């Protein structure tokens, strides 16, 4: 097993973390206490967490698999309520903060800046290998959001012929993956035109402005979730030319068609409304869900599409009804697609109990 040193207590109660190269692996230790996180720090807000079931640590006695969560752009792992729901359903939970993001961000780094999606893909590969080494008999499911979803499918395609701890995951859940630059045809054409310039001036900011989505989500602003605004910024992260060039290259590779092995769940909201303030809590205001769904057949041969009415860009951060619908459908898919771990004959837990 890779020697990464001891796990350290995390900023979120009930979690621990340790570095893996340039990234940081986070795990739930099954002792998260609800309703005790400070607003503006990492973790779910008190008001929202009160609606989540208290799961304890059921996965310790009957794990059916391992969930590895991957965040998106201007993002990091803080969704402890999601970890709770997956544990209640019988899954061990890990997350990775990729290089230059969240817990992995160094003072000298530009947040979330990469010039090639092989970079975050190598972080994800290292995290997956570490988790497989710790749980060799359990199936591994990667749950990847937005740019994390783009990273996950490219990695799974590239590693599709590997075996053992380097093998691709047994299943991938794509939570609103970033498969197309949002906006009008004119804006998308501008993104393509920026790509050659990005080679010469990669750190130049093409666009900068506040994230209405992150602003609306933050508990300090009356939203549902508490997170560190220095790591998921309401002011937004500038879009830099080198990063956008890398995004377009990665999206182009998806459009050429991938051969991701195993089962894939492609999840999104049913509606988009780019930065429409009145719909920030009921639609995907970041990406075009029709563009996401249209790529399903380009990922692999075993893709199931799931759309949730009333969901936001990150389905795990939606209002109670769409969020619980997503969790329930996700667990149903997991239970159907994944085989029981080797040597187990225990009874299987059911999907998490929906919140009121």
Short summary of the structure?
With 356 residues, the protein is an alpha/beta fold. The chain has 10 helices and 11 strands. It has helices at residues 46-49, 80-88, 118-134, 147-158, 185-200, 212-217, 241-256, 289-294, 296-299, 320-337, and strands at 8-9, 15-20, 23-28, 65-70, 91-97, 140-145, 171-175, 205-207, 239-240, 263-269, 303-308.
Tell me the strand order in the biggest sheet: 1-2-3-5-4-6-7-10-11
Average pLDDT, to the nearest integer?
85
CA-to-CA gap between the ends? Answer: 43 Å
User: What pattern of helices and strands is seen along the backbone?
Assistant: EEEHEHEHEHEHEHEHEHHEH
User: How many strands, which pairing sense, and closed or not: the largest β-sheet?
Assistant: 9 strands, mixed
DSSP helix fraction: 25-40%
According to DSSP, the number of beta strands is 11
Number of helices: 10
CATH class: Alpha Beta
């Amino acid at each position: 097993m890779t020697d990464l040193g001891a796990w350290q207590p995390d900023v979120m109660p009930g979690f621990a973390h340790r570095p893996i190269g340039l990234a940081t692996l986070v795990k739930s230790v099954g002792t998260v206490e609800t309703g005790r996180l400070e607003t503006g720090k990492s973790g779910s807000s008190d008001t929202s967490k009160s609606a989540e079931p208290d799961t304890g640590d059921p996965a310790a006695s009957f794990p059916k698999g391992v969930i590895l969560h991957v965040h998106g752009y201007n993002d990091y792992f803080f969704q402890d309520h999601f970890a709770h729901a997956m544990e209640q359903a019988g899954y061990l939970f890990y997350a990775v903060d990729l290089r230059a993001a969240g817990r992995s961000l160094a003072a000298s780094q530009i947040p979330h800046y990469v010039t090639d999606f092989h970079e975050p893909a190598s972080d994800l590969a290292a995290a997956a290998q570490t988790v497989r080494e710790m749980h060799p008999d359990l199936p591994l499911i990667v749950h990847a959001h937005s740019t994390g979803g783009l990273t996950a499918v490219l990695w799974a395609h590239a590693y599709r012929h590997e075996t053992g701890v380097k093998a691709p995951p047994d299943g991938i859940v794509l939570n609103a993956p970033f498969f197309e630059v949002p906006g009008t045809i004119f804006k998308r054409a501008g993104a393509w035109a920026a790509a050659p310039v990005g080679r010469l001036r990669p750190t130049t900011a093409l666009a900068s402005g506040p994230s209405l989505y992150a602003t609306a989500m933050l508990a300090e602003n009356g939203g549902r979730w508490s997170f560190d605004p220095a790591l998921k910024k309401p002011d937004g992260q500038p879009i830099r030319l080198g990063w956008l060039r890398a995004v377009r290259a990665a999206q182009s590779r998806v459009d050429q068609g991938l051969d991701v092995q195993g089962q894939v769940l492609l999840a999104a909201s049913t509606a988009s409304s780019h930065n429409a303030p009145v719909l920030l809590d009921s639609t995907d205001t970041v990406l075009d869900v029709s563009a996401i769904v249209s790529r399903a057949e380009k990922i692999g041969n075993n893709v199931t599409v799931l759309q949730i009415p009333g969901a936001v860009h990150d389905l795990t951060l939606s209002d109670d009804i769409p969020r619980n619908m997503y969790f329930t459908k996700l667990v149903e898919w997991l239970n159907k697609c994944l085989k029981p771990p080797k040597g187990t004959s225990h009874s299987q837990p059911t999907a998490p109990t929906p919140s009121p």
